[in-house]
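User: Let's play a game. I give you a shape written as tokens, and you guess the letters that built it. Ready? Here's round one.
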């Protein structure tokens, strides 16, 4: 029930459930905590409340995703901003090597990419195959994200392990 309240942003319901002894670190089958749910659904006020009550900012799902990864995946810039202010690791990696920046770039969330870069995340972070945020954004045709990345320090000529640059990937896309 706490996961459902968190996913819907029902702060008062979540507080009541916690008051009745609900486990703030309870996990879904995928390993998501109520904080993951709140972050992914943009329930910023509830995310703050959960952290204030002791929720783990760095709890990982089975894939190694932390609440900030879910906020990045779902385009929840305000939730991401709150998590960063609360001390979330901006450059944390999931099990496949993805950082919140890499996820936000691939999904096309320019506001989140800007937020993360301004929070000090390196524009040069790579997946194990050598793809940077610029590669991922270019491959998906996210022009606004490409523009932000270039303005904030991404390396235009960086190559993946296959030797592809962002320009190659954009051309492959068409």
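Assistant: Ready! My guess for every position:
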């Amino acid at each position: 029930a706490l996961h459902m309240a968190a996913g819907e942003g029902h702060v008062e319901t979540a507080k009541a459930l916690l008051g009745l002894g609900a486990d703030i670190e309870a996990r879904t089958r995928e390993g998501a905590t109520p904080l993951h749910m709140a972050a992914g659904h943009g329930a910023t006020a509830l995310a703050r409340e959960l952290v204030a009550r002791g929720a783990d900012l760095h709890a990982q799902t089975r894939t190694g995703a932390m609440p900030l990864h879910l906020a990045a995946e779902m385009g929840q810039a305000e939730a991401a901003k709150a998590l960063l202010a609360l001390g979330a690791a901006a450059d944390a990696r999931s099990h496949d090597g993805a950082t919140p920046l890499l996820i936000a770039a691939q999904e096309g969330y320019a506001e989140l990419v800007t937020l993360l870069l301004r929070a000090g995340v390196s524009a040069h972070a790579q997946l194990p195959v050598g793809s940077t945020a610029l590669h991922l954004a270019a491959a998906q045709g996210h022009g606004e994200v490409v523009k932000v990345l270039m303005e904030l320090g991404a390396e235009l000529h960086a190559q993946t392990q296959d030797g592809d640059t962002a320009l190659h990937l954009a051309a492959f896309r068409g």
